[in-house]
Write a structure and sequence with these properties.
Blueprint lengths: L9 H32 L7 E10 L15 E7 L2 E6 L10 E6 L5 E3 L4 H9 L2 H24 L9
Antiparallel strand pairs: 1-2, 1-4, 2-3, 4-5
Helix pairs in contact: 1-3
């Protein structure tokens, strides 16, 4: 016995198109945010400064409710060019009194400039993953839109 394939209704095509479109837009926004963040962390925008660290604080508790360690939320305060500066996004606490390279992100916060090759490679490659997935969802959105648009052209009761 041959099993007949069900045809999608016009409403199903519309739902699939909207869902893929929303996911696509979200992934493109995430890729742009990660790209702009990478620009700041790599010191490619504006003027990099050297900050002498005065002290560092943590925003979150040292352990989570399950006993594991949470994200540090480490921010340090210091002086750059005679001005007090608060930099966030440190992966490990810097030594007090030593200079640290900082840069401004496009939205105005100060972040430490990544120094190692692996950190720089991670910052460059991170936006490419959501971008690749967004391209895939863009194709699916276009396919669903075409299916939705063409579904109204089929004659009623046709088998194709």
């Amino acid at each position: 016995m041959v099993r007949q394939r069900e045809r999608r209704t016009r409403r199903q095509w519309a739902k699939a198109t909207v869902l893929c479109g929303v996911i696509t837009a979200g992934l493109y926004c995430l890729a742009v945010y990660l790209g702009l963040s990478a620009v700041g962390h790599l010191g490619m925008i504006g003027r990099s400064q050297t900050m002498r660290v005065a002290y560092c604080d943590s925003d979150s508790p040292a352990t989570t409710s399950r006993g594991g360690t949470g994200s540090s939320g480490l921010h340090c305060v210091g002086y750059a060019d005679g001005h007090r500066v608060r930099a966030t996004g440190f992966s490990s606490p810097p030594r007090i009194g030593l200079p640290v390279q900082i840069s401004r992100t496009p939205w105005g916060s100060s972040v430490p400039v990544d120094q190692g090759f692996s950190h720089k490679a991670f910052r460059v490659l991170t936006p490419l993953f959501p971008l690749a997935i967004a391209v895939m969802f863009t194709r699916w959105t276009r396919m669903n839109y075409r299916g939705w648009r063409n579904s109204s052209r089929l004659p009623t009761g046709s088998s194709e």
